[in-house]
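Here comes an entry:

___
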Amino acid sequence: MKTRPIILLADDSPSIRLIIRNSLEPWIDADFLEANDGEDADRIIQEQNLLGLPVDVVVLDWMMPKLSGVGLLRKIRSTEALSLQPEVIMLTAETYPDQISACLKFRVACYLTKPFTEQDIVESMQKILLNGGYRDAV
């Protein structure tokens, strides 16, 4: 039985993944996984589901090689088993209204623009985890 949330950090920038992880670890008791592109993130999500340890939250970069964050989001939400979980925090430098509405259409929990603050990412994650019943994780 899973007692801690599983958080997947999907960004092609190792430094961004490190910043996010370092921001969250002091505040969130979770298991962290990392992916450097959309295809890698998709593989991890599928593997975790097969193991019976589904990813609870994906911190997802908009622009990634192989499969973009939006492409992965579409794929996740079009899969019946993934239509409600994982929750997604979309990270992007894109602020165009049509791009934001495209993400919201696919049930993004939070939409954060780069540069984001440590407080932005921590508060977004805490909100998601508290709503998901992981009160001990925050």
Observations:
- Strands lie at 6-10, 31-35, 57-61, 87-92, 110-113.
- The first helix runs from residue 14 to 24.
